[in-house]
Write a structure and sequence with these properties.
single chain; 112 residues; mainly alpha; 4 helices; disordered N terminus
């Protein structure tokens, strides 16, 4: 079996979705069935800043929400209700953005 940076090709092809390292890549996270590579650069040994950047990235990508949701089994009826509520929230947000662009509704928060 051929080798690639210490891993066999078979091991690379059958790697678990949450494997920590693979050929120099950072940790892999499985989101909605697709792999997302999250990489954070640590500059000048400033780990705190890198950790804040990682948390912000994970928050933006919805990783925390996904982990919390997968923590316990979700009944099909609960899943359906959650998806419906998310769709309503998205539609309202889109309508609000559209109304703001057309000038029908003022912006939230305003300038300081």
């Amino acid at each position: 079996m051929s080798q690639h940076c210490g891993h066999s090709v078979a091991a690379l092809l059958s790697a678990a979705p949450l494997a920590n390292q693979r050929c120099g890549e950072g940790p892999r996270i499985l989101i909605n069935g697709e792999r997302a590579i999250v990489q954070i650069v640590v500059r000048d040994n400033n780990v705190e800043q890198a950790l804040r950047a990682l948390k912000k990235k994970m928050q933006r990508e919805g990783t925390f929400r996904e982990m919390k949701r997968r923590n316990h089994f979700e009944k099909p009826s609960e899943k359906k209700a959650r998806q419906k509520a998310e769709a309503i929230r998205r539609a309202r947000k889109l309508a609000r953005k559209r109304a703001q662009r057309e000038g029908l509704v003022g912006r939230r928060g305003g300038r300081r």
